[in-house]
Design brief:
The longest helix has 31 residues. The relative contact order is 0.16. The chain has 2 helices and no strands. The protein starts with a helix and ends in a 28-residue tail after the last helix. The mean pLDDT is 85. The protein has a domain of 62 residues. By secondary structure, it is mostly helical.
Length: 89
């Protein structure tokens, strides 16, 4: 059961990372070609997917980054995302 939970968590984290990479890659392309509608559509699509994946992950497992206006420091509770890889071995 614990292994299934870790696999789900890792899968959700990988989705956030994948969509984030797509967004960043599109931004770099748009720097060079700011009027490319196809690239802008691609960026908007993957930005929405990243935001959804991040919100889903954070709702289930907690924040991925420190909040900009933190009143409490409990965002570091629990394992860090990179600590999950060692749990499967």
């Amino acid at each position: 059961m614990l292994n299934d939970r870790n696999n789900s968590r890792e899968k959700m984290l990988r989705a956030v990372q994948t969509y984030g990479f797509c967004v960043y890659d599109a931004l770099l392309y748009l720097d060079a070609y700011p009027n490319c509608k196809e690239a802008l559509d691609y960026y908007n699509k993957y930005k929405r997917l990243e935001c959804k994946a991040r919100a889903d992950y954070e709702q289930k497992y907690g924040p991925l980054t420190a909040p900009m206006e933190a009143h409490e420091w409990n965002w570091t509770n629990g394992p860090w995302p990179w600590q999950l890889e060692g749990d499967n071995k």
